[in-house]
Structures
1.
Amino acid sequence: MTITEEPALEVGSARRRKEDARLITGRTTWTENVSLPGMLHLAILRSPMAHARITSIDVEPARAVKGVVDVFSGRDVADVQGALPCAWPVTADMVHPDRPPIAVDEVRFMGEAVAVVAARSRAAALDAIAAIEVDYESLPIVLDMEEAIADGADLVHADKGTNKGYTWVFDSAEAGTGGDAGAAIDGAEVVIRRRYVQQRLIPAFMEPRSVVVDPTGDVYSIWSATQIPHILRFLISVVTGTPEHKVRVIAPDVGGGFGGKLQVTPEELITFIAARRLGKPVKFTESRSESLLSAHHGRDMIQDLELAARRDGTVLGLRVKLLANMGAYMGLVGPGVPILGAFMYNAIYKFPAYRFECVGVFTNTTITDAYRGAGRPEATYAIERLMDELADELGLDPLEVRRRNWINADEFPFTTVCGLQYDSGDYAKATDRALELFGYAELRQEQQARRDTGDSVQLGIGISTYTEMCGLAPSRVLGSLRYGAGGWETASIRVLPTGRVEVVTGTSPHGQGHETAWSQIVADQLGVAFDDVEVLHGDTRTSYKGLDTYGSRSLAVGGVALYNACQKVIEKAKPIAAHMLECDPADLEFTGGQFRVRGNPDGGRTLADCSLAVFAAHDLPDGIEPTLDADAVYDPVNFSFPHGTHLCATEVDTETGRVTIRKYVAVDDVGRVINPLIVEGQVHGGVAQGIAQALFEEAIYDADGNLMTGTFVDYTLPTAADLPSIVTDRTESPAPDHPLGTKGVGEAGTIASTPAVVNAIVDALRPMGVHDIAMPCTPERVWRAVQGGAA
Amino acid sequence: MIPPSFDYAAPTTVDEAVSTLRDAGEDAKVIAGGQSLIPLLRMRFAAPSTLVDLGGIDELRHVTEDGDTLVIGSMVTHATVLRDPLVNEHLPLLAKATATVADRQVRHRGTFAGSLAHADPAGDLPAVALVLGAEMEIAGPGGRRTVPAAEFFVDYLQSALAADEVLVAVRVPKQGAWVGAYEKFNRVAQGWALVGVAAMVKRDNGTVSEARVALTNMASTPVRATATEAALAGAGNREAIGAAAARAAEGTRPGDDVSASADYRRHLATVLTKRAVASLV
């Protein structure tokens, strides 16, 4: 008897990432490393004013600087520069002002491009921009959202007559998905009313944005540090009028994005325009200061919230009035960011009535757009803070209030008050596991002891039981929300003659580890070695179709496309193997990389046997196409809904206001896991960014619209030294809609963690009369809360 | 960004450095570790005509003992200070404070003397130099002179160094019976201090017999908290130390900016002073 040992499964193993050696050492192609013969370098002169008319601009002095080849202002290219696209006009009447890549007559935020120098070196280009002479006539500045929408407000775009970009409403009574939130609030025993401010954040990816455009070949070749090479190719073609087949976009290795590179940027268009104008390769790489100033920002919302409940803690309804700062123009998907959050304010709870109104507001600031979580962290923060406030109002344990309202495991699939169908989950299980790892009861005891002794360091416990919608997204749903693109993803498999496999994915990793995870999936499905799989991505010449990487979609959507492509390969190979084995294809099974006659473990044929047979094509069954290659496109039937419970214990030094995270436990349920190491990395990074919003980061403008946090000295991005160890664990509720069972994980940590931290701080200080602290909870703000609360 | 262009000189002796500086005129700058100057150049906030690099002058790279004083050459990096046996034995306060400076990369490039010459009141080491009673050994066209720390820090980013002078070494008296602590409060680990407190005391039977306290980032220069120092004499318990520390911000003029308000900085100065001194008694 032959005992065949099944090879160990790749899926589920904590493989070290195959791409990391080159990414960590930098021995790879970042866009900034691209150097072409005769390449020129750009520098961009940016507006020092938040709102001004350009009364005159003289670029001639810059031409005299040694090494300068060309200088141009917005006026010089006004007819050919086009306008930046917005792919998500959330309402039919959304105000969408033209945004030229280079300002022509008026600048509307500090950092807007005003003129451009092309020179033989970057240093010469930088020297030359200082020689450009611009006269500005200052115009009234609008920074505050409430002032911006008041009657008689000064206008960011005078010709539009308003600073309101759009008003978007969801009402469960009108939608037929629930009751009337207003009625629920009017009749409620308890109403919690709060205003929370989601401060403006800066994505601060590690690799600054960089773009190279080469116009010298038969096509325009564009290298860009982008998350979205495919969308960029399409939109560059549309905006510049260049036929799509004459545009090739390459996203080589890209150093992080977090949504910050989900944009078609002025810099990409400016570089294109310069290359087209000069007929030479041109490069632009931003400095860190330029990046902080002018790459899109995130968050910046004001939330007015009313939560209605019974005295037993049962939530009856929620009304959300949201102001969302768009900045000076509409970004690529910026208007839609609050809308992605709209469906998440009810979170894991089954309350029956909900109304959401959002006004998108123009101000004289850098545009806002997607930043890790995009709308969902804001929503989750609001509801998770409110649940703690409700618990405090009712004298209940915050966990108990959550238990009384959450969807139980036996209620899935569950249709929410927003009309979404939550796919699977077990909130109690994740919470129980988190409590066990956290030592909840012991920490509550210590908290009481510190309160009793009046310790100057108080302890607080914060809870966040979150879910989110990701795996963007079913194309029809996106269409119904007026998003410009679909939500499908694609994968192609090429089986090479020797049985090695090339995978082409339409996703565009910028740090996520797709090459590793995709290889693991293919290794298991096709029975090839992990190292025998090569994953190609990010070049529209090899990966001509795809919808790129954002919204925790790559594995949840692109992974399924890959799985389906694998099945197609197997189906193609089966008749070939059957021909070699002289049997009926119906009698074959494919396991462990071998086609075998069912019940006979001997004499199988591998995929490599089939691929070599196809390569030679000397002896194939009649009518068989000599290829094993396969493509698949997957359009998801639903979003994916990961969830979890995060618990945070903070020590608050009441003398200085310093907050120290004592313990952080994250139990996440992201469905089935392909690579636990990658999942853990995503959770760690996500939690770090969520903690950063809670404690550290804020983009601040002064009254003149100057960005005061324009370097990392003032924009206090935390590093590993500022962050706690994170205890992670998982529960697993597989996604029921597809065979991989995976859900998204890229944003979960960020969405979950911010309210856990702030809840913990407020919990520590409640006996002092503190009910809220504005984010980021800086030592000074916490200290002031202690002073005010104790008074 | 990229700095504007400049001439570069790499002298190998102090005399050569001084003559190069004199010849290059007022717009020349000395560069040691470059951890303050290079960011200023890259942001184009500074545009010197010539950089005179002290990195090639070997005699500046040593820590030596001169009786009751350690002489720390101006190219001695923070990392060297941290591992130097003489510093650890005789100036433990300097080692403690140096460990809080910026991050590991900066500590391997940046120098002790450079951080004093930069005269940034938010830098950690100027306040430490004040309480240690350090003296600056300065070489210029007219020869050498010595300036005590108390006279060296003139104003924001302005020291007593003339444009044609080079800080050659810092002479620091051994702590002897003095014990010291440095309390630093910042937003993120590698950030500047919102406030820092350098404290040294001499003890006598569990009470403070003599104290020196200097504050980081509480004025346009590092400043001594003289009211606190006087009130600490004879203090032996938490209450007395607290009462003395409560006067730490007297006479200070802290900044008011996006990182912290002046009020909060004054408050922090008192808390940090209390903690620094209490840790020593």
Note: Residues 471 and 553 of chain A are 4 Å apart (CA to CA).
2.
Amino acid sequence: MSNEPLEGIGLVSADLSDTSGDIAYIDTETRLRLYRKMYECRVLEQRAYDLFMQNLVKGTSHLALGQEAVAAGFGIAMRHDDYTFCTYRGHNHTYVRGVSMSAILGELMGRECGLLRGKGGSMHLTSVEHGAMGSYAIIGAHLPVAAGAAWSAQYRGTQQVAVCFFGDGTTNIGAFHEALNFAVIWKLPVVFVCENNLYMEYTPIEAVTAVKNPAADRAAAYGLEPILIDGNDVDVVYETAGAALSRARKGDGPSLIEAQTYRHGGHSRADPGKYRPDEELKAWLARDPIPMYRERLVSLGIDEEALEAIESESDTAIDAATEEARNSPPPPVDIAHIDVWADGSASWRN
Amino acid sequence: MAELTYREAVGEAIAQEMRRDTNVVFLGEDVAAAGGVFKTTTGLLDEFGPDRVKDTPISEQAIIGAAMGASMTGLRPIAEIMFSDFFAVCWDLVANQIAKTRYMTDGQCSFPLVLRSANGGGSRFGAQHSQSVENWAMAIPGLKVVAPSTAADVKGLLAASVRDPDPVMFFEQKSLYAVKGEVPEGEHVEPLGVATILRPGTDVTIAALAAMVPRALKAAETLQEEHGVSAEVVDVRCLVPLDTRTILESVSRTGRFMTVEENPRLCGWGAELASIVAEELFWDLDGPIVRVTTPHIPLPSADALEDAVLPSPQRIVENVKRLVD
Amino acid sequence: MNVLMPQLGETVAEGTVAAWHKKAGDEVAKDEILLDVETDKAATEVPAPITGVITSVLVQEGETVDVGTVLAVINGPDAAETETETRITREEGDSTVLSVTMETGVVEKLPGDPPAAAARFSQAGQRLKLSPVVRRLIAEHRLDAQVIPGSGRDGRITRNDVMAFIEAGPGEVAAPRVTEVSVAPAAESAAPGVQVPADRPRPAPAQPAAQTFSDGDRVPFDRIRRVTAEHMVRSKATSPHVLQAVEVDFSAVDRVRSRYRESWRADHGFSLTYLPFIARATCLALRDFPRLNGSVDGDALVLHKRVNLSIAVDLNFEGLVAPVIPDAGGLTVSGLAHRIHSVSARAREGQLTPDEFTGGTYTLSNNGSFGTLLTAAIINQPQVGVLSIDAIKKRPVVVESPAGDSIAIRPVGILSQSFDHRAVDGSYSAAFLHKTRTLLEDKDWSAEL
């Protein structure tokens, strides 16, 4: 049984019309930033795929090709000191916080220039200085952690917000429910974003979930408004993100957003994704967020040259980053024996 | 010096640290309004208010996850897990997330948090509320593990644990909560990673932890008075970081080594110590290394059964006698 | 099984052996009376705990000992030897005390070949449980486990027992009695070598006569000195030593050494000396002359399969130890250089383990650092040969050629072997030395590095 693609823009929470005027419309500069971010995410993720096929990226890698709009929309809407928590499918979420392409590719290839110097790998991309507080490889674990970071911001009175990205499969694990309940009762400044790409690993999410919309249909259980949006429309994502962030910053508590989207590839590199029906795949590919947005921008009168400049700059940037990462050596072996403890050491005895 | 019970020392240590540093916060089930199911944290809510002392729902994963997220963004949380057995409910957050994230992120974050819980048997609570689970934590790289045996050590080591920049699993032995002891007044901090020789001796080194320490001391008295055997008793106190130096120095003098462990037999902390002593002091041993432990069974609940299986002073005495023959 | 001094009363701590009803070598049945013991309050008979043969009697009539002291040892029908004790007793070569053999049943045996006696004893003897610290102390002090009283359960020797035994000092043990052994005059030498008439072992005094010296500072022997002194006296008393030497032209070795000097030092951090080459040549020569890699056991020569090379190391004038390189015959010059360097360094730092002192089959003694000509080394029991390497110096040598004789300057050194004339004769030894020399002078040494 296949999921039908959304028609039109989709439901948006009634609360959105009540939000303050700081996102009354989206200006051209922002739109261009949104487009750039999506395009850069695309070339980055595509390059990761290519390098994997050349056996330069080892282990496993979970690509978010097709899901760029959610990452870009939130990334542009967030404050630089907000916190992001995402899953192992987190290259884009990490990138949009300001991490360099070469650091990400380097980490995937296990090189010294990697974001984690090869100690974490694709599934654990983290850059604390950019507020990217980690990519988490155990389903659901980071939801309570995000709540904790939000609690810390609330306690310190800084108005920072924690944004927590996860997939449709996460809505069925215990930690999801604990974290939502917890965040609501303490009114924590955290935004939970469920990227529903319709498949939990290889299984259609509908087959294993008691409700049709895995996140939106559960919001009421925690006293939250259901928010269900078209995750491939970056303008909608951007507006929804802004509203939820505002709410949290004001002290009005958490939000739960379900963004419907679709991944172009399989669950991980090992999976060609052949379990999805052809018509479904075709329909969603036709709603690829990047060409869709390009069309909209052109129709809004934005100069094509500006878009072409973004595209060629991105292509150049990814090539330069690839070169840098490929030339970086493997990390020195002795770093395997450091940084278990805060003082840099790893010793458990005297 | 004041006389405090082990449980009072818990609250006193937390209060000491919360007064000293406003980043120290405390959360757990029934810890605030009720002062903790073991009454270890009465008075804290009154002194520090609901922003810093917080009751949570029954959500171990959320409690530990929140502690993790808070500690990586500037706070120094103390989280209580009511019974140490319940760590099994949130073990992913402890073992996969907290313990490993600093290493995986190339040192970008650290987790200055304390996870404290009521550990161990002797209270007739049955198998799921009586386990000694220090070894679960000891087996995971990235966690510090502390298990004090006296009220003074509770205060000093809990304070040190809060000040430590790394995640500390702090195991309070519930059967010791009512035991009184002399506790230094004023600010008191004991360093982690130091074992103490509570009773010097010449014929055998007995290493014990938490509730087994008073039993080892009692056995040592009996051994001296009734059998003329001089036993040196070492309170290990901290499994990670482990003070191997004190233990090895002791065994190099006595030539004999015994551990007394409340945990079930397999993979107990004493096995690791036995392995270290066997490898590094082989040529100084005058007899086999003996571990006195609870047998490898879940703990039964009836008094007669539980008392029969937990290591007793009598069993320690018998084992030492056989060893020194 | 040990027969212990019983406790004759609750507050009694010692007892006296009043009378023995049996002696060493006697068969005894379980519960048969062995001896009478008494205190000032009581007397009792001590029965045999098992059936067997009394292998040793350790406390004599009239002696008073602590409760628990081993009075005698009975060998039961199912006693078995342990490798441990065989190694310890044989390698110690220490049979200064009452060695007893089952066969002869003699309490005191002429220590003509003490290692063999000790070996046979332990083969017949019982299983001794020696803890790691006890084994280490026994090895370090070259003691005989069989004669240390054990106060532990079943007569187990505890660490305290060994320490007490050591504190008591060597005066407690009887010195060996030595028979005069006449040595056959040296056989003709087959090669230009030097032979020296064999030593005549003198009877070693059981206790040195009390001599008083009125002048001079008295420097008491430390433990190592005492142990070395005992070992040397015993070795000379055991083996009829013959000294034989050859001159060796080291120019072939020197060429290779010079060529590799810098790179070896740079790669390995220590210098490449003559010793590994000599060690290699010795090992190869021992393949052709295996009797020199043996041990005398009674009236047989045991030929060891492998060459375990003992390297004598001087500890800065404070003593001599000879750690072993096991299976040295399987190592090249390069491998030997490393092992020799490692084992000498660790010997000087006191880091050798007891196992590293055991099992040697032939010894090299490098004496050349002070420029000596040759040395008549003392054999390291129970081996039958030791090779001393003295100074290697430039000397004028005669070089023969079809065109006539000339003089050349070559590095020359003397290798002098002391061999046990029970095992081999002078011609065998000389042929071995000839082979060794030939290897040193003619082998292609660069192939070994």
Note: Chain C has two domains: 2-172, 193-448.
3.
Amino acid sequence: MTGVAAPVFPAGDSIVTSYIQSERQLPVDDRAEPRFDEMVGQDRDIRPAWAELAAGLAEMGKPGLRRLRSQVERMLDNDGVTYIPIGGARTEPRPAGPAQRGDDEAAAVDVKPAPRERWRLDPVPLILDAPDWAELEAGLLQRATLLDLILTDIYGPRTLIRRGFIPPALIFGSDAYLRPAHGMRIPGSHQLFFYAADVFRTPEGAFTALGDRTQAPSGAGYAMADRRVVTRVSPEVFRRSAPHGLSGFFRTFRNALQSVAPRAAEDPRVVVLSPGTQSETAFDQAYVASMLGLPLVEAVDLTVREGRLWMRALGRYEPVDVVLRRVDAGYTDPLDLRSDSQLGVVGLLQAARRGSVTVVNTIGSGILENPGLLPYLPVLSEALLAEPLKLPSVSTFWCGEAVSLSHVLANFAEMVMRPTDGTGRSIIVGRLDAAEVADLRSRISAEPQRWVGQPFAPFSVAPVGTPEGLAARQVGQRLFAVADQSGYVAMPGGLGRVLPLDQQSERSHSMSEAKDIWVRSGQAALAGDRDSAPWLADTSALTSARSSATTSPRALEDLFWFGRYTERVEDLTRLLIATRDRIDEFRQRGAVPEADLVPVLLATVTHSSATYPGFVNGGVGVLPEMRSLVLDRYRMGTVAQSLAGLTEAANGVRDQLSGDTWLVLAGVDRALAELSRDQYDQGSMLQATHASILSGTLALSGLAAENMIRDHGWRLMDIGRRLERSLQLVSVLRWTLGRAQSPAVDSLLIESVLQFAESILTYRRRYRGRTQIGTVLELLLLDVGNPRSLAYQLQAMGADLKALPDASGTSLPERLLEEQVARVRRCNVTEFDQAGPEGERTDLLKFLGDTHEALSSLAEAIAAQHFWHPAKMRQLDRPIGQRRDRRPA
Amino acid sequence: MTPSRRYNIEHKTTYTYSDDVGASYGRGYLRPRDLPWQRCLSHRVITRPSAADSSIGVDVYGNNDLYFHVTTSHRKLEVISQSLVEVRRPAIDAKAVSLPWERARPANAGDADAVDFVLPSPRVDVTDEVRRYAEVSFPPGRTIEAAIMDLTHRIFTDFTYKSGSTTVTTRVSDVLTDREGVCQDFAHLAVACLRSLGLAGRYVSGYLATTPPPGKARMVGVDASHAWAAIWMPGDTWLAFDPTNDQLADERYATVAWGRDYGDVPPLRGVIFTDAKTSEMEVAVDVEPLGMDTEADAAGNSLFDR
């Protein structure tokens, strides 16, 4: 088929024809009101811009649609596209100290990872044709321009307030109006840097703004991630209606960020400031950072000194010129804004006031989100731009005006009530019971200036893929624009949103599905011929311009723990496999004396993973405990818990890891989920899961070895991995070979240890099958050629430490490591099989005990030198440890 | 022209900690404002250890806000503010004070900026109890002056001054219930009363020169920073009154800063980084009168023209 835009329809039934037929009767909410259908016109014809898509949908049918949905889900998993529902989000800082990172010491600490959910995306895009987009774009840019002028005035001369264009109470009474930001201006002609509008279509088909997003708009990253997924899964037929690409917008965005830098710095440093991996839209933040090629930082990575902003980087400070802020403005500086904030940088506002750093969106920009401003925009547009407002707002009544208040109360049942501060949820009055209505009325009467009322209006509908075919669902859109030097530039696309059936407020906290928005160019059918498919441009994210210099201590620590957790997962899995093999073997052989090795191995599992009481006290069923050791993510020391720690660490450095990392983790997660579903597994599924986990960790090793630049972050990750491997090896040796058993059991234990340490083939080849403690220890402790030996780990860590920029040869970690290398070299393993009267191999135990202790000291020394944990932040004027305080008399 | 007075003001705050403090960031409102009736002739702030970075800016209300950053590790931090200030009795707009108080509602007078001081603020919540308390002093049509004098006097008589009875987090409603507090509480209460009636009230932070008892020498360092209130009047002037001492602010009152409440203009606040388990704070304020300033009078009015 050529790219001619002709509606092609198979005759008879298809999911598209049933959509057209059913759509009119399908109640979307409890009111059967007319709605605008994005795909189907008045006469039940497919709108031209949708023709190719509709044809494609008809062709694939229900099975095709189902397949598409599951492909989308898989892609989202593989890309690690997630969302943290607001109820589960924490505002405290990330766990920072090793004690909170699942260190051996901290087995009692209960680490419950936040419920991260997979992003939900409808495979059917929302299409905007060229005339619609032209109208929408013009309206969007005009709104941005208008709001920019208003923002500039509010924090400047306040002429609009003084002349009565904006009621003063609307601004002064809002928590988003930040007085300390008064008088601050960023370079360039715009004060509103990044703008988003939530838009919907009325039953008449008119585009209408539901609200403006100016605080720190989220969603541009999701829009890009959505596009990448939809691009990859869409059948060929979809591609004939190829939309405008999105990556050009990110290039503009990056240039715009550089252009607002304070000085004429040649290469301004820009960072993305995130509240942390627990924030609701952490994925979006990280994705935007990687699209822009900018480091993703948290407050702890930044500091203000000498009146300007710096980023901590391995032993020195790098100046920061521009901050793209994803932390709400009120939280950005505990000195001048919310003093209880743990997400801000002390002195940031001062630095911004001095103009030594530019923060965008500007601190205080959230005031424009106040829906109370909406009724005043038409007049402001005429006054400031001498133009009518092109993209009108949804009809809004600010209750601070007596007339509006009485209108709202008189038509209360039809209203959606929204607080002016945007912090609370919208309330659909028609869905409240009598008592709730009365309560709301009295709250509004008490503080009318804090509320607006908006008559309930249904959104337009568009086809959404469901297991039963296509269904009509209300859809909204978030559109974006960024301030370029010349003016505002819109993203040709956006974040579409399918409203949950019972919701119409744009700030729904229940997770709804996203939709990719396709803006078709004027020559849609020819898009495929134009500059060899805009699709390609979208699939490769801009190459990140990161360098080792931009790795903060926090990121280094995340990478270190990424290495440790990866190894911990691998080692425990290997030990579980070796143990399981013996259990299987002796189940078949029955009660023979050698079976005594099984309890030794089981106890080793418990000791090495610190999952007490486990097998140590006996009394637990082997299979349930083995399952729990893999699956229970809330139990310290399990595979699942280490995986959660690993994922958390990876999220903190998402901008530094290969995207394939998420593919690997998704595979492991799927294996765990499958095992978890199989309640009656007798061990075969567990075995398969072990194999999947192991292959996942091997893949991560491969990524680390082959796909990562050897920068400081990689070094720390490698150190983490080597350190953990050493510790695990020492621990396994301690609990398997520390006590002499019968020669037959010892010999089997040695084999299991060799299997655990992936050295059995070498051993057999080298020592021709004769198992001896001495030769085993030689291979596992001393052989620098064996990548699983202790000596090898020490050597590798030595090389890593030397490669770090602050290596002096005499730093504490380097000295500690030197000592261990020497100690290992000097030790005489041939004497280690000597057992005392109690059966203990005293010399071996002492050596292993000392080594464990030395490795722990090494870990501490590395943390002290390379990671940075700020001292506790306190308020100067609140005395610590007592209640009394002096103050004005 | 009323005579002016000069004061040498030293405001010393000392923090001591049980452990090292790596860094202290501070924000302070310590420099007296320049006003038609007041001039800050000299001002300096010293910190020990000395600050690596410091500056004075101007905030949204025109106050001078100090910023400092001490980077030297310390267990004791001293912040010493020294000001030489010259104050006259503020001229009172006789026409404005004799207007009925209802005319002073910014909403009626069409003054947008003053609306900022009508709305509730973080430390001043306007409750029905506050309104009931305020209404007694504001019968319809009463002049602004009469109403303010009455409110000032009532707070002075109804409430007991009790040092240490409240903390910086005490709410206006607690003060109303307990009937005791310190100057900050009475200033907050007065401001709340004004706002409950749609009037604009602001919180004023500064110093009050005290006279030693007859026959006693003036004691150094026993003074304190002080707080009082002010009401907006048509013509865009403010009338400042002190419910703690039952009087209008005069040449004994050195104004440092004003805001919606204490939180906008604390003498000092900040953020420190420390693992210290305990800390102590000590404040010593000394307002030393330098006597009548005849020199300035001789120089004419130009000093005070603004």
Note: The CA atoms of residues 208 and 253 of chain B lie 5 Å apart.
